[in-house]
Every structure is written in C-alpha cells, then in structure tokens.
Amino acid sequence: MPPETEPPPPPKRSTYRHGNLRSALLEAALELAREGGPDAVSLREVTRRAGVSPNAAYRHFADRGALVHGVSQAAMARVALAMEAEIDGLPAARDPAEAARARFRAVGTGYIRFAVTEPGWFRTAFHVPADMTYAADATAAGAGGLTPFELLGASLDGLVETGVLPEARRPGAEFLAWSAVHGLAALIIDGPLRGITPEQAHDAGQDVIAMIERGL
C-alpha cells in the first residue's frame, strides 16, 4: 500500500479586505475549539484552515496566547447568544415579578444548556483570562450588547426592580449565582456527572437555579 500522505492545505487566499483576515483566523480557531477545546487551537492549524501562511497570523495575533484569548472571547459571546435565545423564547408574562423570575431562570438555563451542547466552546470561553478584566468587554457580548456576566447582572437587577430581591442583598449576588450554575456545568461536562442524560442535566439545572432563587 502506498504511504499515507497529509491532506493538501486549502488554497491560499491572495487578498483579504481590512479586518477580514482576523475574522477568518478567529472562525478557524473557533472550529478547532469546538472540536477539542482551547488545547486544540494552534496557530499552524488555524492558518492552514484559513488558507494563509503562518506569518500572516502575526499581523493580528502576537502569539498563540493572544489567539486563544481572542477565541475565548468569541466563545464567550456564543454563551451570551445562547442565554439571549433562552430569554427570547420565554412566553409573555403579565406579572412583572414573574417575568423577572423567568428571565433569571432563563439566564441560568441557557448557560447550562450551552455547556452541555457545546462543551468545547464552553471550556474555551473560560480558559483565559485569569481575572474579570474582560468580563464586560464587547468582544464577549451577544447580539444585545451584553456579555454573559452582564446578562446575569441585568436579570438580578430585574429581581430588585420588581421587589423579588431585596436591594440590600443585591451586591455580589451575581458571584453566588454564577458559582453554583458554573459548578454544575463543570460537573456535567468534565466531572462525575458526565454520564447523565441531557434530560437529567436539564432537571438538575432547574433544581440548582430554583435553589439559588430561594437563597437570594
């Protein structure tokens, strides 16, 4: 049998409009991250998929760390889109307090649903940075202009505005809620709950969100 050979690289694109190359590199990196998480993202493979030389990437990303940061922010924006989709799918509610509760639950539901259905992107979204510096950066925002952290904050503000959550208990509430929901998501995709079904994951998520709501 003839020896196996590597597949030929995609045809190189001779020109890119301003900004298009960066977008093409990010899209290629997102494909890799979706398949294998942040560790799967490499400059060599990203440029191969984008159809450009490796040196072309350095015009937009100083090194692999900068590329992974960019794809992390892009993955976070997809978390925001999933949360927005969950909110947009809510039925109309006449009672403002119930509507605020539903939005809060939808934020958590969308977050967990994304983790379960897109574990590669979810892992990538939280790979970098190591602090909250970019938690409100526009590069991590959904269609409505809010990042996942901001969507959670807005849902908590809605609980305060409708009298569901006492104003005195609002400070820091987003960190408590986020920790519980993220912890469940991590247990489901990378921990001992990996074997549960999507239905069980959904039910567990609803139970955790209800627990958070009662404790606020």
UniProtKB/TrEMBL annotation:
The keyword Transcription regulation applies. Keywords: DNA-binding, Transcription, Transcription regulation. The keyword DNA-binding applies. InterPro entries: Homeodomain-like_sf, HTH-type_TetR-like_transc_reg, HTH_TetR, MT1864/Rv1816-like_C, Tet_transcr_reg_TetR-rel_C_sf. Residues 19-79 form the HTH tetR-type domain. It holds the Pfam family TetR_C_33. Transmembrane segments: none annotated. Residues 42-61 bind DNA. This is TetR/AcrR family transcriptional regulator. It comes from Streptomyces katrae.
